[in-house]
């Protein structure tokens, strides 16, 4: 971990976690008004398969994967579909 620069970590989390998170928050507002929606998440196998060289990337992908997964637990009171596509 000491090989990763803080800027690299912030960039990876910004792109792979916070970007989709902020978009999801906006979309959920629309979905609540409609009481329906469909979210498609393109996930990376790196969320589950990682190496020392991909630690930060894998962590950022695991974070967004787990956040989207929690939507299925009933935290959102909207009828919706959630599709995760792994690449």
Notes on the structure:
The protein is α+β, with helices and mostly antiparallel strands and 87 residues long. It has helices spanning 6-34, 55-75, and strands at residues 37-43, 80-86. Helix 1 runs parallel beside helix 2. The mean pLDDT is 83.
Short note summarizing the structure:
This protein is α+β, with helices and mostly antiparallel strands and 87 residues long. The protein is 57% helix and 16% strand. It has helices spanning 6-34, 55-75; strands at 37-43, 80-86.
Describe the secondary structure blueprint for this structure.
Blueprint: H1 6-34, E1 37-43, H2 55-75, E2 80-86
Parallel strand pairs: 1-2
First-residue to last-residue Cα separation: 25 Å
- Order of strands in the sheet with most strands: 1-2
Task: Note the overall shape.
Answer: elongated
- So what's the oligomer here? single chain
Tell me the name of the CATH homologous superfamily: NAD(P)-binding Rossmann-like Domain
Mean pLDDT: 83
Largest sheet: 2 strands, parallel
Structural class: alpha+beta
Number of strands: 2
- The arrangement of helices and strands along the chain is HEHE
CATH class term: Alpha Beta
What would the CATH topology be?
Answer: Rossmann fold
Helix content: 55-70%
Radius of gyration: 14 Å
Distinct helical segment count: 2
Strand content range? 15-25%
């Amino acid at each position: 971990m000491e090989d990763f620069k803080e800027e690299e970590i912030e960039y990876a989390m910004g792109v792979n976690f916070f970007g989709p998170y902020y978009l999801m928050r906006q979309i959920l507002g629309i979905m609540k008004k409609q009481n329906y929606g469909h979210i498609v998440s393109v996930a990376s196998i790196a969320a589950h398969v990682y190496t020392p060289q991909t630690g930060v990337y894998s962590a950022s992908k695991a974070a967004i994967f787990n956040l989207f997964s929690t939507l299925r637990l009933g935290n959102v009171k909207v009828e919706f579909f959630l599709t995760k596509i792994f690449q």
